[in-house]
Here is the input.
Amino acid sequence: MKVSLSMGAFEAKNRLSELLNLVAGGQEVVITRRGKVAARLVGPKNGDEKAGENWVELARRVRAKTKQGRKGIRELIELGRRF
Here is the structure.
């Protein structure tokens, strides 16, 4: 993967949408902080697009179990730990 762009963190924050488009197109973006590499933005690997779907399904299952009535925060924390 080729580094197509390198920029400071402040500028990257202000141009995030543009950077995401570059990364989606297969390019790599390096973000620096005070001249040192702080992060690399790269596109997802094959199969990574579906990784988020597992979290959505988990959230749905937890939500379904909590619809049984109002629960206290401690009980919800314990329920979340079971997954």
About this structure: Residues 48-81 form one domain. The chain has two domains: 3-41, 48-81.
